[in-house]
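hey
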């Protein structure tokens, strides 16, 4: 017991004795004793209360400092992605302004007499680019975005860093910064990104302007960048880049290796805060270093990665700050509530639960033979390739200690479904245009093409049109690549037949519930 407590106890004993000596009436003595106890206890509590107040204040200040630090990390992560070129430049402002002259006749005629601003907007639209929104970060660390006010000057695109010299450099938002039915949304899959067409037309423009070709224009002659708008051959990019590095990321000579080329639909980044692993097969544990592997161009040596770790810690914070947008259309609340019960009975084991408490996410891997979706992605990345990643600096936590890497996964990991209404097309290869078709396996279209930017509120997903086949003689290659043919290699829409356990009314209810996630 401290000296302060001892002093108060001695005073209490003296005052208690004084009360009993001066009063003969027991009732009076007890009354005065009770008052005295209140006084003394209040006195004893005062320094404790003060100490507690100071502790709460200190804790609040620490929380505030941590919150401020996290907000700043999110802001810095956004700045890294949108303002800091981490690769050699892809092309110049002159190239992008002149690229329309490399378009097919009909597309070129539409913009020939347009103002420079309107022409640039058409260029953005053709390739799936969008103006960059403005970031604000809430006190709780959640990122919010809004588009700048309408102005005559077209701002820089979200998907490229544009420096003071007018040099354009691709960033991660090229694939992961798309739109939600026309609204530019960082973290949304860029389901309109036309990387292959953009690269081909940049190549033609550079030839015409007498400018040297870059890595994308040369590399795309060997490695396809994507056969359908909105999908990319991104996994092979990573495998190809790692082929010429040792475990410490030194550039090493190596024999060229054949890879299984296949298109992937980028997952939404607003799932990042929930998922403990990366990629559809969940083989790589989440970490800031793993986010850096797509910068493995020869110009970036081992020192680049050590020097830029803080940048990617901030990118990690930014990704963790993203949350799914909320559906803003009409919802039948009673039907959705019925759908919630059905979902929790039939779907939640793999996809998790949702609600005011945040729900739960099981990170459930489903064996490839059971899920039945296109197996090309699963088979394309070899055990040796995954092991190469596991042995590399990217998976290292500290010297002698590495992350857990699944070198032999069994299949695909069921994703969270937050904002699932906002991220068509569906499945890892982007083969299914609406959630209605996810729930109706036999009705999935064979060849389809997105027809409108707006949402199909009834079926929840793309508005699209059917076709017997892609128009191979269409002179505009961009239009040819807007058709998705599920008969092509790696593009099957088969599998995930679990919805057939539900009847039609139950499927309708589950579809309504999915709008609420």
């Amino acid at each position: 017991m401290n000296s302060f407590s001892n002093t108060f106890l001695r005073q209490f004993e003296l005052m208690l004795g004084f009360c009993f000596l001066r009063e003969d009436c027991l009732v009076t003595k007890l009354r005065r004793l009770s008052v005295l106890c209140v006084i003394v206890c209040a006195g004893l509590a005062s320094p404790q209360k003060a100490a507690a107040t100071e502790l709460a204040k200190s804790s609040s200040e620490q929380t505030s400092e941590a919150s401020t630090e996290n907000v700043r990390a999110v802001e810095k992560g956004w700045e890294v992605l949108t303002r800091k070129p981490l690769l050699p430049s892809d092309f110049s402002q002159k190239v992008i302004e002149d690229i329309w002259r490399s378009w097919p006749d009909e597309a070129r005629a539409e913009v020939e007499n347009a103002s420079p601003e309107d022409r640039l907007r058409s260029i953005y639209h053709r390739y799936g680019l969008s103006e960059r929104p403005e970031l604000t970060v809430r006190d709780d660390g959640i990122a919010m975005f809004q588009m700048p006010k309408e102005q005559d000057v077209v701002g820089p695109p979200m998907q490229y860093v544009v420096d003071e010299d007018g040099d354009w450099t691709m960033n991660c938002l090229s694939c992961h910064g798309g739109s939600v039915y026309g609204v530019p949304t960082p973290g949304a899959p860029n389901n309109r990104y036309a990387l292959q067409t953009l690269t081909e037309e940049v190549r033609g423009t550079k030839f015409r302007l007498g400018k040297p070709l870059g890595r994308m224009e040369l590399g795309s002659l060997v490695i396809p960048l994507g056969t359908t708008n909105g999908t990319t051959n991104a996994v092979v990019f990573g495998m190809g880049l790692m082929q010429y590095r040792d475990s410490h990321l030194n550039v090493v000579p190596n024999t060229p290796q054949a890879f299984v080329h296949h298109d992937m639909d980028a997952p939404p980044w607003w799932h990042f805060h929930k998922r403990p692993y990366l990629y559809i097969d969940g083989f790589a544990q989440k970490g800031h270093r793993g986010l850096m592997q797509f910068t493995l161009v020869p110009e970036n040596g081992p020192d680049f990665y050590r020097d830029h770790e803080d940048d990617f810690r901030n990118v990690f914070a930014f990704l963790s700050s993203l949350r799914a947008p909320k559906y803003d259309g009409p919802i039948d609340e009673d039907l959705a509530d019925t759908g919630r019960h059905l979902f929790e009975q039939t779907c939640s084991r793999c996809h998790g639960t949702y609600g005011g408490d945040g729900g739960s996410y099981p990170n459930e891997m489903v064996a490839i033979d059971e899920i039945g979706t296109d197996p090309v992605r699963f088979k394309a990345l070899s055990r040796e390739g995954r092991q190469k990643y596991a042995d590399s600096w990217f998976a290292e936590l500290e010297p002698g200690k590495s992350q857990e890497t699944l070198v032999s996964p069994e299949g695909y990991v069921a994703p969270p479904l937050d904002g699932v209404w906002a991220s068509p097309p569906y499945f890892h290869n982007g083969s299914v245009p609406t959630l209605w078709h996810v729930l109706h396996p036999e009705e999935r279209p064979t060849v389809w093409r997105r027809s409108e930017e707006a949402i199909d509120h009834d079926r929840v997903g793309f508005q699209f049109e059917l076709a017997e086949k892609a128009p191979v003689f269409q002179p505009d290659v961009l239009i040819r690549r807007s058709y998705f043919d599920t008969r092509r290699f790696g593009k099957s829409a088969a599998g995930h037949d679990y919805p057939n356990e539900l009847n039609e009314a139950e499927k309708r209810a589950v579809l309504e519930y999915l709008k609420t996630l």
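The first strand starts at residue 91 and ends at 92. The first helix runs from residue 3 to 22.
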